[in-house]
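Worked Example 4.2. Consider the chain below.
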Amino acid sequence: MTPQDHRQLPVFVYGTLRPGQRNHDLFLRGRTTAVRPARLRGAVLYEGPGYPYAVADPAGEVLGELVTLAPAGYGHVLAALDALEDHVPGDPAAGLYDRVEREVQLTGSDATAETVRAWVYLAADRVARELRASGTPLPGGSWPGPRLT
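Applying the procedure from the previous section yields the following structure tokens:
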């Protein structure tokens, strides 16, 4: 584990962890203090096998939510999210996703263009290369479809 893994950053979610999606209730319900609409600039969303992949791309934008995990269970919940996302801390080449720190912009009626540092699960390099070569980008940067944020 790297030292940054101990920081209690919020998590930007854009797929099955979004409110209303199948993994939100399993992993996040009752374990958060806030869920706010947000956008991640510098990434493109690709279709996956029942879930999306965000791939770094300076021209893209991904819509999702910024989730603030409750401090008491932060480590446990983050470890569960790492397992769900097939992220191996300290070995970004080993899994499907790499958890990285990025700037995320809050959106919605209560946001004032505030930018927040957050954990984001991006497609691991080998997965990202495959998606760029033959993947299907999702229009509008939202999964499972367009959402107003």
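Helices lie at 22-27, 74-84, 125-134. The chain has a mean pLDDT of 90. Compare this with Example 4.1 before moving on.
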